[in-house]
Design a protein that fits this description.
With 786 residues, this protein is α+β, with helices and mostly antiparallel strands. Helices cover 49% and strands 17% of the residues. The protein contains 21 helices and 27 strands. About 4% of the residues have low confidence.
């Protein structure tokens, strides 16, 4: 690896990447990645990684574990070779993984990505995959059903083995041979069934000797009765081996015909494994895709060094190449200067490798042809080089390679020699690098470089903030502010006597003291401004949040008011419809009474009561009755009552006991127990028309708002029946009843005809029919409403 890349620890990032890969070839490619040089190539690689990042977030990662390189096996099969069962199982596993990745992509096909071309290079071969899995059970076992011939051979082998064992079972159980046997068992030697016989009795058991025990006390004899069976088994075994070889040849030939497409699929799988490994690493680093340019602009927002502990790493903002091309970072040791340099260089290299970077979105990086670095102690005893000499050797190399498309990072420029000469040399080196057009970031302790940055256009000071009170660096990079060494303040905090520190301050030149005082004043002013800016941002954020809350409250209030208005409109519409229906009913009743010409006092009283009820019902503001009420009689099941607290009608479901305080009622679809004191009994009223009593289902004095699903008009005149049906339909529409039954009887059919003629032209009726068997047949009409 390039020494400059190694100095920035790119190899450690690539090692982390290799651990995320799911196959060996992808791991190897991960550690061998080198930064790309073309902007288009880099953006394409970053887009692929970002698309994989998005797919993992939405659909999870595809299963790529277990991918093995079977290219050699495929090429050998293509050349006509016979693959082993192990190799064929590896090919089958590769085909299974390929098919699984294709299926995973089909589930996320709703999203188009830059990875689609790679997924399209994956070719399935489910037939070969299933053939291999069904024929080969393991590396050492071929399935019986791999072919019909193999199945027949193994069946015959089992039969022959069974016969041999039967014969041997008879021998070991025989009383004749019992005393000659060492053990009453059947075993095998050289693939043939034998029995263990005592050495001194081997002449008593006719057969072939195949082996003896290590002690010589036992000989293993194949009795003559099983020789033929064993011979048959050996012949069948050779046939089995030949058939297995034929099956493997057949599978190998089929795999060989698929070699080219399998090779392409494998390459695509390795590429996908590497890309999804980049995305997985990005997830762990909480990384984002940077914006790339070729103008040398670097603008990192809340950038973090990827090798530091993410829980303790301090994010920092770094920019270079926008308003200045050279950044001089000063400050005390262990303050984070070198980490800032490495962060710039390493994140640049990561982006050029197609990796997401641990920084906020819309961070910007540039494509550089070379990233040249001099970081760390390069002292070499073997080469007889001092620290200064080692650094200068690197600087010479950098000066020779640097150009307009280079990023140069130098740590402790000019260190390791006389401060005056080192500072002068550092300024001269920076000037030469700027002449070459390179983008430069350098760290130093020299005050001369701070002055150089202050007086030179295009060169900017930067420092790593240090908290003198706690003697700890904050690791925040501040651009535009020269750093202070803080040596005197730190020494005081650590316990150096004041007189020593004061004497040291006297020894410093007046120009240096004045410069440090100016820097101190600037730093104090900056801290004050930062604090004020922080408070202003907090106040702005608080105001924005308060504004959002106020807008949400206003929006909710407006929505609530709109709902109340809609509710009021709906209730007003219902009230108007109900009052209109009651007025129509009252007008009809007046007309009937006028026709009867015998208006009684009772009828007048009923009429006045109906008018009063209509007036009260039309008034939307009503107070609940608060007067004392006593039930006129004990309640019984089936009574219609009023629940006084909610002003709702209900039906008594159970007759309460004599001393009960509660009663079980049903209001609508709700069944509940309520206090008897909350109950008001509603007596059924009868309406008379000219002295003639009408049914409850007849024409009431006002529209009943309780759901009506059945009315009986038998015995009515056609006019009375039609008025009753009309009011019943109005009530059904108001109470959202979808179906109603009218009982008109069979009789002469006059009522049925009049009702049907009326229903055909009624706007609320969707359809009607005569009753079916069990519903009343021709004696009823079933109405369905719109």
């Amino acid at each position: 690896m390039n020494k400059h890349h190694r100095a920035l620890e790119l190899h450690k990032i690539l090692e982390l990447l290799s651990k995320e890969c799911s196959c060996e070839d992808a791991r190897q490619r991960a550690v061998e990645i080198t930064p790309l040089s073309g902007k288009f190539e880099i953006e394409e690689a970053l887009k692929q990684t970002d698309d994989a990042f998005m797919l993992i977030g939405r659909f999870g990662a595809p299963s790529l574990s277990g991918v093995k390189n079977m290219q050699n096996a495929f090429r050998r099969a293509e050349a006509g070779g016979c693959l082993s069962a192990h190799e064929l199982l590896g090919i089958g596993e590769l085909l299974r993984i390929t098919r699984g990745v294709r299926q995973w992509r089909s589930h996320s096909a709703s999203v188009e990505t830059s990875l689609d071309l790679l997924f399209e290079r994956l070719y399935e071969n489910k037939h070969l995959e299933e053939r291999i899995s069904s024929c080969i059970l393991s590396e050492d076992e071929i399935a019986d059903n791999a072919s019909q011939t193999l199945y027949d051979i193994r069946r015959k082998m089992r039969i022959a083995a069974s016969k041999a064992r039967e014969t041997l079972e008879k021998i070991i159980r025989s009383s004749t041979y019992k005393n000659y046997l060492q053990d009453a068992i059947i075993t095998q030697r050289s693939g043939r069934f034998v029995v263990p016989v005592k050495a001194e009795c081997r002449g008593q058991v006719p057969g072939l000797v195949h082996d003896t025990s290590s002690s010589g006390a036992t000989v293993f004899i194949e009795p003559m009765g099983v020789v033929q069976a064993n011979n048959d088994i050996r012949v069948l075994e050779s046939k089995e081996a030949a058939e297995i070889e034929r099956i493997l040849f057949e599978l190998s030939a089929e795999a060989g015909s698929y070699a080219d497409t399998a090779s392409e699929s494998y390459e695509a799988l390795v590429e996908l494994s590497l890309i999804f490994a980049k995305a997985s690493l990005g997830y762990k680093m909480k990384a984002t895709m940077p914006i790339m340019n070729t103008e040398g602009r670097i603008n990192l927002k809340n950038a973090r060094h990827p090798l530091l502990n993410p829980k303790t790493a301090v994010p920092t903002d770094i920019n270079l190449g926008i308003s200045f091309d050279t950044l001089v970072i000063t400050g005390p040791n262990t303050g984070g200067k070198t980490v800032s340099l490495k962060t710039v260089g390493l994140l640049t290299l990561m982006a050029m490798c197609g990796l997401l970077i641990p920084a906020d979105e819309k961070s910007e990086l540039s494509v550089f042809s070379k990233v040249l670095v001099d970081i760390g102690d390069e002292q070499s005893i073997e080469q007889s080089l001092s620290t200064f000499s080692a650094h200068m050797t690197n600087i010479v190399s950098i000066l020779g390679e640097a150009n307009r498309s280079s990023l140069v990072l130098i740590d402790e420029l000019g260190a390791g020699t006389d401060p005056v000469e080192g500072a002068a040399l550092a300024v001269s080196i920076l000037e030469r690098l700027r002449m070459k057009g390179a983008k430069i970031a350098s760290t130093t302790h020299y005050a001369e470089l701070k002055e150089f940055a202050l007086r030179t256009p295009g060169v900017e000071n930067g420092c790593c903030e240090f908290d003198v009170a706690s003697l700890r660096p904050t690791y925040k990079l501040l651009i535009g502010v020269p750093g202070r060494s803080n040596a005197f303040a730190i020494s005081k905090r650590l316990g150096i006597e004041d007189s020593i520190v004061e004497r040291a301050q006297e020894l410093v030149s007046s120009e240096s003291r004045q410069f440090e005082d100016v820097v101190e004043t600037l730093d104090s002013r900056r801290q004050e401004l930062d604090e004020e800016l922080k408070k202003a941002r907090e106040a702005t954020l608080k105001a924005i949040n308060e504004k959002k809350k106020a807008e949400e409250i206003a929006k909710k209030a407006e929505e609530k008011a709109q709902r109340e208005i809609e509710k009021a409109r709906h209730e007003a519409s219902l009230l108007l419809s109900r009052t209109k229906a009651q007025a129509d009913a009252l007008i009809n009743e007046l007309e009937d009474m006028k026709k009867a010409k015998n208006l009684t006092a009772e009828d007048k009283s009923k009429l006045r009561k109906s008018i009063k009820e209509m007036e009260e019902g039309a008034d939307p503001i009503r107070e609940k009755e608060q007067e004392e009420y006593t039930l006129p009689r004990p309640l019984k099941a089936g009574d219609t009552v009023l629940l006084r607290d909610i002003d709702k009608k209900a039906t008594v479901l159970e007759t309460p006991a004599a001393n009960a305080n509660t009663v079980f009622v049903q209001a609508g679809i709700i069944k509940t127990r309520t206090d008897i004191k909350n109950i008001k009994l509603l007596e059924a009223e009868k309406v008379t028309l000219g002295g003639k009593s009408l049914r409850k289902t007849g024409r009431p004095s006002k529209i009943d708002t309780r759901p009506v699903t059945e009315i009986d008009v038998r015995g009515y005149t056609a006019e009375e029946a039609l008025m009753t049906v009309d009011r019943a339909i109005d009530t059904a529409v108001l109470t959202n009843v979808h179906m109603m039954t009218v009982i008109h009887g069979k009789g002469t059919g006059v009522l049925r005809k009049e009702i049907h003629a009326f229903l055909r032209h009624h706007k609320a009726v969707k359809s009607f029919r005569l009753g079916a068997f069990g519903e009343g047949e021709a004696g009823v009409t079933v109405i369905e409403f719109k």
